[in-house]
Amino acid sequence: MTEHKLAIVILAAGQGTRMRSATPKVLHRLGGRTMLGHVLRSAESLGSDLVRVVVRHEREQVAASLEDYPGAVAVDQDDVPGTGRAAQLGVDSLPADFDGDVLVLSGDVPLIEVETYQSLLDEHRGRSADATLLGVELADPHGYGRILRDGSGMVQAIVEQKDATAEEAAVTEINSGVYVFRASTLRDALRRVGTDNAQGEMYLTDVVRVLREAGGAIAALAAPDSSTALGVNDRVQLSEATRILNQRVIRRWQRDGVTIQDPQTTWIDDTATLAPDVTVLPNTHILGATSIAEGATIGPDTSLVDSEVGVDATVRRSDVTLAVIGAGATVGPWAYLRAGAELGDGAKAGTFVEVKNSSVGAGSKVPHLSYVGDSEIGVGVNLGAGAITANYDDVAKHRTVVGDHVHTGSHTVLIAPVRLGDGAKTGAGAVIRKDVPAGALALSVAPQRNLTGWVEKNRAGTAAADAAERSRASEKATDGEQQ
Ligand code: UD1
Ligand code: CA
Fold it and tell me: Residue of the nearest CA to atom 21 in ligand 1?
C-alpha cells in the first residue's frame, strides 16, 4: 500500500469548441493565470502528491503549461470522448494499489477556492459517501448537468442539458463538475458507463446513476456561492468569470488596507501584490507579477504589468511594463516605461516621456517630451525638455552614459555611444556626438546670426513683412523721441 490519501485528477482534454479559439480552452487566461493554472494552484494547496492532468486537444501546449506545477503529471486521453473516459484514464494512471480519495476537477471551472475543495473532502469523509459532488443553485441553469433527487432528497442522477426532459431541465440545482470518489469505487463504476447519450460520449456524471443503482450513497455539498461554480465554455462566460475573480481580488486587497476608489474600472490580477495604504484610482490595470509598496498612488488611467513600484511613488495616466519605480518617484502623466526601465528613489519620468532599458539615478528628472533608451543616467541629473537618446543606428543599439548632476539644455540629442561626465552641461538644441568631459559645457549649435531686414526685403508684401515694417518704424520713432 502507498500511504497517499488523496489523488487529484483534473480534466483538461476537451476541445472547447465553443471558445472558437486557436488556444485550447483551459489555457485561456483570467486574472493573470490560465484557467487550468487556477485549478492547479488550488489543487496544489491541498498538498496531494498525486496530481494528474488529462490532456488531448493541443496536448503539447497544455502539457507544457504544467511546467510551473512540478507535482502535476500529464495523462493522455485516447479516442474515446467524454469526461468519463478522461476520469477513467486519470484514475488508471494512479499507482495500482492506490485506494484513497480521488478529487476530480474540471480544467474549465476556475473560480473554486481551496477551502471549498477542502469542505468537499471533509463532507465526503464525514459521511462515508460513495461519491460527493459540489452542487449549486442557479437562477439560469442552462447548459449545466442537473442534479436529480428522489422524494427523500437523495441524489439519484445527473442529467446533461442535451439529454434532459423538459421537467428535468426545469431543475435549478446544477453539477459544478467537481467530485470526490474512493478510487476503487470510481474505477468499478466507470467500467459500467457507456456512451449511449445525446453526445455519444462517456459521461463522468453517469457514475452517479451507476453507484445509486448499486445502492451507493451520493452526497452533494452546496457551493458557498453560485458564482464559484461558473464553468467557462465560451467567451461570454470567460468575461463573467474574469469579472467575478477581479471583484474577489479587489475585495481582498481592500480588506488588507488598499484604497480602491472604483472597483468597476480597476483590474487587478490574482498574481499582483499590493501593500497597505496603496491608493488605486479609476481605470487602472495592475497585472502580472506587479508589486506595489506602501503609500504609492496608482492611476487614474494607468496600466502596470510585471513591474515594481516603491514606497510613496506616484504613477499617473501611464503605461508601465517590466519596470522598476523607486521610492517617492513620480511617473506621468502620460509616461511610457518599457522593459528594463529603472527609476531611482525620488526620480521623475514626466509627460510624454518614454524610458526603455535604462536606469535613471536617484533624484534625477526627465520631465518632458523625451526618449531615454539603453542609457545609464546618474543621480541628480536633469534632462531638459525634449532630450532624446539616439540609441539605434540601423544596425545595433548603443549605450548612453550620463554622469551625476548633468544638466542638458532643451532638445539635446545624445547620439550613442556617448558619455557625459559628471556635472557636464549641454546647450539648447545640442547634438552630442562626442563624449563631454566632466564639468564641460557642450555646444554644437552654430552661433546665432540676425540678418536685419531680411523679411521686408525677401518677403515684401506679406503680413510678416508688413508687421516687421510697422514694428521697426515704431522702434525708430521711439528712438527718435529718446534722442
Ligand atoms: C460538464 C458536466 C456537467 C457539469 C459541467 C460543469 C459531464 C458529462 N458534464 O459539462 O454535468 O454541469 O461540466 O461545468 O461531465 N474533458 C476532457 N475530455 C473529454 C471531454 C471533456 O478532459 O473528452 C474536460 C474538458 O476539457 C473540461 C471538462 O472536462 O475541462 C468538462 O468538459 P465540458 O465538455 O466542458 O463539459 P460540460 O458540457 O461543461
Ligand atoms: Ca464545461
Answer: 14
